[in-house]
Amino acid sequence: MFRPFTKLPDFLAKERIEKPINFLMRWWRSVFLFSIIFDLLILRKVKFDEFSKTFKTCLILYGLYFLFTEVLRRYWPKYFQNNRFQFVKLQLDIIFTSVIILFYPSSEFNFLWIFYLLPLLAALSYFDNSNIGLFTFVEICIAIIVEAIYNNGFGYWQSIPIVAKCAILGSLSLISVFILRLIPQLTLASNLAKSSLELIGELNPKDIVQLLANAAKNGIPYADASVVHLLGGEKRQTLIAEGTSCLDITVLGKSPMVIGQGIAGLALQNRTAINVPDVRKDSRFTPVPRDVGQIASIIVAPMYVGEKNLGTISVHNGRKNSFDDRDLKFLEALAAQGATALANADLYASRKRSRQYLNNILTASLELDHHLPLDEITNNVASIVCKHSGFRIALVNLIDEETNELEVKACVGLPAEGVSK
Asked: What is the DSSP letter of 39?
């Protein structure tokens, strides 16, 4: 029942949820302590000396535990983010909450059971194991039953609020996890739609490439930088960096790639997006200049239209396992949009050149006076060609009727004596 909401491909993918959950858990502990103090000392005006020894001990230990987690988070984040410590911390949160609720003074109306929600939400979010979420839910249900038996006994009427509390906690936690997973997906969809709108109105290839690089960097949460390679060089077999985000393109220009070599070259050759969680363990990875920075994980998506290969979009991070299937699908969709935009820009430029050529031909034909002598006509043709084509040199050759050989009849840009007739 928990698997659809808890399946996570790797640790850093889980970190997307861990970060907001860790933030909420910090506030949760603060609000939990503040609620107890506010309720007892201010609303009910119960003196601290009137607390039971067990309850006071639990409050003091919980306060020390709260300070310990804050110190660990600030100064030793590596250990704080460790999965084992996450599980231990989760169990301590549940134990402290259970004991405090159990020995809570004046417990006729105990509202603290709602604080079980966030530990349960954290269990569903932290671990790629539905059994841990189920185990935590059972733990909380048992704690609620024990608290009810300890304070009010257990019977038919006492079981109704117990079932209601467990149902509320389970439902709210599942809904919360679903929302936490939905928000990143909506964000990616929004970024993809935004990039699509920007690409639709752009016809300059250089601007399209830069838009793609920025969209890849901004659209993938854990992207340190992005690169767009386009095919160039002899026979269009070399991938050359044409656009980057958070990278110096002049550095990347020192390490072009060939189709079939390196991760980007293989991705384009096979027309398949590639996710490399750890480049050090992948022989396909081609080392890059040191100025590029540390690269530990990378994803690459090819750009192609029909039978024509165009290039690739790459995104990398300095930490391992930074990207998941959702990032790969986003980059594939962006690459497809980019390929279409580049193809449209190329088609527009080709049509524009064709129109310009036709216009030049029409203009040139109107400028010619067919009633002039042949020598003047050939000289005018050479001048008009240079004028409308942009070339500096133009020659007009005609076949001699007697010798059947080509002879230069007019030239522009070269001295007449330098032209062999």
From this structure: I
**Residue-level pLDDT at 313:** 93
* Residue among 315, 343, 310 nearest 329 (CA): 315
- Residue 268 and residue 399: Cα distance in Å, rounded? 50
Amino acid at 216: A
Long-range contacts of the stretch 35-41 (C-beta < 8 A, 24+) = 35/111, 35/112, 35/115, 36/100, 36/104, 36/112, 39/111, 40/105, 40/106
- Two tokens at 91? 């169990």
Q: Give DSSP secondary structure letters for 170-204.
A: HHHHHHHHHHHHHHHHHHHHHHHHHHHHHHHT---
Query: At a CB cut-off of 8 Å and minimum separation 6, what does 352 contact?
Result: none
User: Rounded to an integer, what distance in angstroms lies between the CA atom of residue 389 and that of residue 353?
Assistant: 11
Q: What is the number of residues in the chain?
A: 421
Per-residue pLDDT at 130: 66
Please give the distance of CA 369 from its chain centroid, rounded to a whole number.
63
- Gap between the Cα atoms of 387 and 149, Å rounded: 99
DSSP 285: P
User: What would the two tokens of residue 269 be?
Assistant: 């050759």
Question: Given this model, what pLDDT does residue 420 score?
Answer: 57
CA pair distance 258, 250, nearest whole angstrom: 18
CA–CA separation, 42 and 34 (whole Å): 11
**Residues linked to residue 299 through DSSP beta bridges, in sequence order:** 275, 315
272 Cβ contact list (under 8 Å, min separation 6): 302
Residue 388, token pair as written in the block: 């409308």
pLDDT, residue 303, reads: 93
Give me the average pLDDT of each 10-residue run along the chain (421 residues): 35 48 71 76 67 78 84 78 75 82 65 74 67 78 78 65 77 74 70 76 85 87 87 80 79 71 89 90 80 82 90 89 85 90 86 76 69 78 76 82 80 68 49
pLDDT of residue 2: 32
Give dist(CA 227, CA 248) in Å, integer: 10
Contact yes or no for 328/273 (Cβ under 8 A): yes
Beta-carbon count within 10 A of 306 CB:
7
CA angle 22, 28, 31 (to 5 degrees): 150
> How many CB atoms within 10 Å of residue 230?
19
Residue type, 285: F
